[in-house]
Amino acid sequence: MHGNTDLDYTILKAIVEGDSNSFEILFRKYYQELCNYSMGILGDAEKAEDVVQDAFVYLWENRQRINITTSLKSYLYQSVRNGALKIIRTQVLEQRHMPRLTEFIEYLEKSEFSERIKSVSAAGRSIFTFSRKKRRYKFPIKFYK
């Protein structure tokens, strides 16, 4: 735990021993500035707060196993940075794969409906086909016999 100020070292030691008051002091000391830092990375206040809260929850839940070799402040900033970057990676993957997922879902809907459409009258099929072209439903329409 080298690199910590005396106050950080005292707070960290108390947190490791389960002192929730020391944890609250730490939380109040760094919460807002960590939220600002996270907001600068993510550009989304809600996600930024979630990342900071996750970092504090992780610290508390793993307080007896964590080996902090930098200052406590540096550790918190690094945790928040890593959490924010994880969200960005997830968003990039979702955006990259969204067109293929949408295409796959549409394929499944079409194949699921093709069997059901065959059992509907010609008028029903044309109404269904027209409604599918006019509106892109996000949910499957069920046909009842």
Q: How many helices does DSSP assign?
A: 5
Instruction: Kindly provide the radius of gyration, computed on alpha-carbon positions and rounded to a whole number of angstroms.
Output: 26 Å
Q: Give the mean pLDDT.
A: 81
Global morphology: elongated
Question: How would you describe this protein?
Answer:
With 145 residues, the chain is an all-alpha fold. Helix 1 packs across helix 2 (20-42) and helix 2 (20-42) packs antiparallel against helix 3. The chain contains five helices and no strands. It is elongated, with a radius of gyration of 26 Å. The chain is 77% helix and 0% strand. The protein has helices at residues 6-16, 20-42, 45-61, 72-118, 122-134.
Quick take:
This protein is mostly helical. The protein contains 5 helices and no strands. The chain starts with 5 loop residues before the first helix and ends in an 11-residue tail after the last helix.
Write the layout of secondary structure elements.
Blueprint: H1 6-16, H2 20-42, H3 45-61, H4 72-118, H5 122-134
Q: What labels describe this entry?
A:
145 residues; mainly alpha; 5 helices; 0% strand
